[in-house]
Amino acid sequence: MAGPARSPQVRLTVVLDTRLPLEALLITALRRNPAARRQEWLRQVLLQGFRSECLGLRQAMAAAPARVSVPLHIAPVSRPDPAAPRAAAEDIHVPLTAGTPSGKPLAGLRTVIG
Questions:
Q1: CB 112 within 8 A of CB 29
Q2: In angstroms, what CA-CA distances link 114 with 25, 102, 106?
Q3: Is the pLDDT of residue 7 over 70?
Q4: Among 1, 30, 34, 47, which residue has the least CB neighbours within 10 Å?
């Protein structure tokens, strides 16, 4: 018996805190993009960060001796205090869906990275 067909697209919801400098920088960079390009820009930022994390883990595994069985530690991401009041919360809804990149998909990262 076959189950319901699943869409190849997955919606992600990410809550960013403007009190954290890196997250505030990301929100500012997002606002600079035209609304029509925000989804693709966020998708590329996410993929670039994930690719970078994978490469870092691969390099750490290659540098570690094979006989060491200590698991690798990934630094935790700071999370905002849920009890803290959220002043002037702003929702920017950009659905992150998989799609075919057009042109130069990572060209926008130059303005974020510097």
A1: yes
A2: 12, 22, 13
A3: yes
A4: 1
pLDDT, tens only, 25-45: 999 999 999 999 999 999 999
Distance CA 14, CA 34 (A): 19
pLDDT, one tens digit per residue, over 37-69 is 999 999 999 999 999 999 988 888 887 765 555
Cα–Cα distance between 16 and 106 in angstroms, integer?
22
pLDDT at position 90: 61
Nearest of 18, 36, 39, 37 to residue 27 by alpha carbon? 18
For residue 51 the two structure tokens come to 């690719």
CA nearest neighbour of 60 among 49, 43, 47, 74: 74
Are 101 and 44 in contact by the 8 Å Cβ rule? The answer is yes
